[in-house]
Amino acid sequence: MGSLRSLRQAAGSYFRLYERGASSSLRLMRNSNLKRINGYCAKPQESPKAPPYTYSHRVPLHKPTHWERKILIWSGRFKKEDEIPETVSFEMLDTAKNKIRVKVSYAMIALTVAGCIWMVIEGKKVSMDFLSVCSLQRI
Description:
It comes from Ailuropoda melanoleuca (Giant panda). This protein is mostly helical.
């Protein structure tokens, strides 16, 4: 038992020393240039330049198609097709499409309610006709 415990302690201390040495060498590699490690003496590298595709604060624009122009008019954003600019923002186009979706859904609700009422009226007409036919057959 005693030898097993001492073996564990020795292995633990060995791994702690190994980790300490490995972490210090990694720290040196991170802080220094690769060329210095190889023994070359070179000036430090310049910081990388900003990429050419940096985000500008302009909103991306889109040239609307004929159908999208109709949507912009139907949504009430513009009165005539002549008033629509050459390019519009995607946000404006999405807003117009959402307004059209809402209007279409309201129209579908109204048509569904009207259809239900019409079916009730037609069903009552049929039942009245059916009752009148049945009463005539009894006589």
